[in-house]
Amino acid sequence: EILYIAPARSQGSYSNGSTATRPCVYIMPSFLTPEMNDYLQSDDWKRRIVGDELLYMAAYKSLDRTIDALGRDRVQRILSQFKKAQAYVQAQCQGQIRSMCDENGNVVRNKTCYIWGEGCDYQCLNSLTLPSEFLDDE
């Protein structure tokens, strides 16, 4: 189990760029045009992704077998605990996570990241002690 803070870098915000002259890059919100939707419904697209779908289904079936082997009730209980702990750390760390780019695309020198935009939540997460109800007793 690895707790993390939902990434601040997502569509409609800024992320670290690849060069010193372009340190912050805007992440475009995702969208689908009618033409894109048409293509995603086409036989050509379906032929192209056959292998991807086979891999997805094999992984899905493998995960299902693993959950069955561990016990669905047990996995559900632990997953529920994890989601509650995740919500707890999200609430506790809200407003404390600083990316290397602000909401206007300017570089922020006072940040909480390990490197570039990675691990920006470590200081807050490391300072927390989870209440006992979030800890698995197994």
The helix fraction, in percent, is 40-55%
Mean pLDDT equals 85
Category by helix and strand content: mainly alpha
Biggest β-sheet, characterized? 2 strands, antiparallel
Number of strands: 2
Which descriptor suits the 3D outline?
flat
Oligomer: single chain
How many helices? 5
Give an overview of the whole structure.
This protein has 138 residues and is mainly α. The protein has 5 helices and 2 strands; from the N terminus they run E-E-H-H-H-H-H. A two-stranded antiparallel sheet has the order 1-2.
Outline of the structure:
The protein contains five helices and two strands; from the N terminus they run ββααααα. It is 45% helix and 8% strand.
Index terms:
138 residues, mainly alpha, two-stranded antiparallel ribbon
Task: Give the arrangement of secondary structure elements.
Layout: E1 14-19, E2 22-26, H1 34-40, H2 43-48, H3 50-70, H4 72-93, H5 122-127
Antiparallel strand pairs: 1-2
